[in-house]
Amino acid sequence: MSTTGHTTADRPSGRRPSAVDAGLNWLDDRLGVAKGGRVFMDKIFPDHWSFLLGEIALYSFVVLLATGVFLTLYFVPSTAQTVYHGVYKPLDGVKMSEAYASTVNISFAVRSGLVIRQMHHWAADVFIGSIAVHMCRIFFTGAFRKPRELNWIVGVSLLFLAIVNGFLGYSLPDDLISGTGIRIAYSILLSIPLVGSYLATFVFGGVFPGNGVIIPRFFILHVLVLPAIIAGLIGAHLFMLVRQKHTQFPGHGRTEDNVVGSPMFPTFMAKTTGFLFMVAGVLWALGGLAQINPIWQFGPYVPYKISYAVQPDWYMGWLDGALRIMPSWEFAGFGHTIPFEVFLPGVLFPGLTSILFIFWPFLEQKLTGDRAEHNLLDRPRDRPRRTAVGAAFLAFYFMLFCASSTDVLANFFQVSLNVVLWTFRFVVIVVPIIVGLFTYRICLDMTGAPRVGKRKRAVLIVRSATGEYTTVEAAPRPGDGHQELEPAPVPGFIQGPEDGEEREPGVRRVARRT
Amino acid sequence: MSDVTTEEHAGQPGGTEPLPLASFDDPHLQPLARHPKRAEAVTGIFLLIGLLGFAAYGATYWVGGQPQVEGIALGVGLFAFGFGLSAWGKYLLPQGPFVEKRHALRSTDGERAAMAAAVVERGGMVVKRRSFLGGVLGLGGAVMGVVLAFPLLRSLGPVPAKTFEVTNWKKGSRLVDNLGRPVHAADLEVGGALTVFPEGYTSEQDMAVDQTILIRVAGPDTNVVTEASRATWGPDGYLAFSKVCTHAGCPVGLYQHQTQQLLCPCHQSLFDVGQGRPATNVFGPAPRPLPQLPLYVDEEGYLRSQAGYDQPIGPGFWERTTT
Ligand code: HEM
Ligand code: FES
């Protein structure tokens, strides 16, 4: 329906048409934006701090795109050898690849280059970290249940793609540490039974280190292919979110069939755009102040050199830890070799992990028999078994992560590597069990106790005239009362307080016209 | 009330007379929101700090740049600017709680049936009436998939063939260091270690495969026998092992003379070397000893290899035959 013929009297709230109306009408005549647009502006966002985690991930990705494009302007994805004669004197005259030389150049010769390069690296760490924590929130509150299983699967895929892209990214500078990482990745490919040697030579264009193709290949995957897939999946993720609407915690008039919160436009828009700037600000400050991956200290990659106490980026830690504590169970026989000591922690284990994560919603449905739709979130303590399983898994991966620094720990505690290694083989199995049981117990205790998670009320001790003491519970704080919420649709027009007028606490009046 | 919302969503402009004022409790109302003047001031201050931060960054850049100052200036600027904007949203804009109805995601039974019927019946028609065409279509698709895999995969690199089994070490290869200088039997002290390559192979590609660690475990007149079958492999106190770790291929970088062990820093595999110790993997995830290179000293006193490695070097792979 066209609105061009409307007179002032027809307008909601009796406004005079302005230039904005004209613009919107122009668009609406061609695309019909008014119908869907208004619905979108009225979309309700429930508020909870834990809903910010996904936003941190989203905005770190925005930062990654922006800083990444900047880096591509200076980075040279080539392993051709050059001799460095740049501004960084300690490396003067050293033979190195162009990839390494250009990364040193970004760090020292491009203005603001170091900050942006470090910001890119910090953003990658924060991106993957916030995805992981965001996923924990989804898991422990049961937000993955029907109808949101598909979105959970998209999320898990995003986590693994982000990890892969992070690995590809820090391989690009071709420094001594990242080169060693690539070498291990090659051996992991090689370990796959039947096809391993083919896969490894195909990917690397020959026997390691290949014919100088690996950096250019990683480059195009890192800057184009994977970011495109990730961006597409993020789009799908958000589309499903809008279509299925947010989950919310129970309470204050919230039910399975409503969403209670603040509207998309303008409230949520303002808050979330502000949040984008805040995330970018923190990442920029980290980029400027906190040194990360100082590749000029590691030196260029040379295949027969190695540096000590090598730790990969944090999100690879669980895999590195698994590689370290795996016993040396190579299978050899029938004219073939299966290097389980690499294949199991390097291929099977992450493979099984991703399958388990992807199928968790369906597994849980099977175990609990609960196939109903859920829009209200669980409190973790009310689902002791799920919470215990989740805590045990977190403990497991955290222990593996710690196992990636066996050498550092041995040095620090002045014990033999042997002791540390066996401790970790033991701890990786025992700690998750203990954590799981403990969590289960705590959950049960918390469900039993009334008023857990609510603010404590003050207890007043009153002395009567006769000297007798009695305790009296103070009145609840204004926000703590459990009055039912009166539902209110998003108003067409919201009237703020008049100038100088102060409202009574807790009450806001909304004038609504259509 | 939610009915009103629904109607509005449907794009129906209602009458022009104002609806009654709606009032509701907001348990999450921020104290600051009750004092809009103060909220405005706070928001303004933060936006201003943001502006100053941007300006400070611009100035730093202009005078030549300095990473820490840039970090603080723009970091604080962006953060304060964002904080101001968020505060604006939180304290000065309607928070609600507003309530929106959820609409069922599922379609009506009729719509479902119609969709399913379209898929099954139309699809069925295609297959049933034209089974020959369907077969050709399917076959064509499958063949296309297979042929497209050629450029996608096969073009990427050569088939491995025997490349994993061979290095450039041959009978009589002279040992040279990374700069191509031949290694003389007098070059290393007892306890010393050196990475060596076969003379004439200096590309990165070759060095990655051929790298060998030469260690001197004893003085000039000791013939080091790691294993009975390797009686002549360790002349003049010298031993040479492949430097590529049998675990995941890192260079086994460290020789500890006191314990007579080689250590791989990647995942801490340890290999025992010396008299009667053929680089046995004694600790860590490495599954096999490091292959040993048989050495001899030529007439001029330079170290040479008696032969190449007697087994594939480095990590395991499917085609590796048992030895
Ligand atoms: C999914 C998101 C991404 C992640 C997790 C990620 C991660 C990383 C990491 C950890 C590095 C190493 C930085 C260092 O040197 O310390 C890196 C380098 C690099 N990234 Fe990304 N990145 C992402 C997206 C992008 C995009 C979209 C682009 C370009 C359009 C890009 C371009 C680059 C370039 C050119 C380098 C090499 C330059 C250098 O190392 O300084 N990245 N990336
Ligand atoms: S590569 Fe040597 S221990 Fe893993």
Q: Give the helix level of chain A as a range of percent.
A: 55-70%
Amount of beta strand of chain B: 15-25%
Q: H/E order of the elements of chain A?
A: HHEHEEHHHHHHEHHHEEHHHHEEE
Structural class of chain A: mainly alpha
Helix content of chain B: 25-40%
> What is the count of helical runs of chain A?
16
Q: Could you tell me which ligands this complex binds, including any ions or cofactors?
A: protoporphyrin IX containing FE, FE2/S2 (inorganic) cluster
CATH class of the largest domain in chain A: Mainly Alpha
Summarize the main sheet of chain A: 2 strands, antiparallel
| Residue fraction in strands of chain A | 5-15%
Total number of beta strands of chain B:
12
Briefly note the structural class of the backbone of chain B: alpha+beta
- Which architecture of the largest domain in chain A would the CATH scheme give at its second level? Up-down Bundle
Widest sheet of chain A: strand order?
Answer: 1-4
How would you sum up the major sheet of chain B?
A: 4 strands, antiparallel
**Most extensive interface: pair and counts?**
A-B, 146 and 114 residues
Q: How far apart are the first and last residues' alpha carbons of chain B, in Å? A: 81 Å
Name the average pLDDT of chain A: 86
What is the C-alpha radius of gyration of chain A, as a whole number of Å? 29 Å
CATH fold node name of the largest domain in chain A? Cytochrome Bc1 Complex, Chain C
Task: List strands and helices in order, with pairings.
The complex is a heterodimer of chains A (514) and B (323).
Chain A: H1 19-31, H2 33-41, E1 44-45, H3 52-72, E2 81-83, E3 95-97, H4 98-108, H5 113-140, H6 149-171, H7 176-190, H8 196-204, H9 214-244, E4 258-263, H10 264-289, H11 295-298, H12 317-325, E5 330-333, E6 336-339, H13 340-368, H14 384-403, H15 406-413, H16 417-448, E7 459-463, E8 469-473, E9 507-510
Antiparallel strand pairs in A: 1-4, 2-3, 5-6, 7-8
Helix pairs in contact in A: 3-5, 3-10, 4-5, 5-6, 5-10, 6-9, 6-13, 7-8, 12-13, 12-14, 14-16, 15-16
Chain B: H1 2-9, E1 22-25, H2 36-62, H3 67-92, E2 98-101, H4 109-129, H5 131-153, E3 175-176, E4 193-198, H6 204-210, E5 212-216, E6 238-242, E7 254-256, E8 261-264, E9 269-274, E10 277-283, E11 295-297, E12 303-305
Antiparallel strand pairs in B: 3-4, 4-5, 5-6, 7-8, 8-9, 9-10, 11-12
Helix pairs in contact in B: 2-3
Bound molecules: protoporphyrin IX containing FE and FE2/S2 (inorganic) cluster.
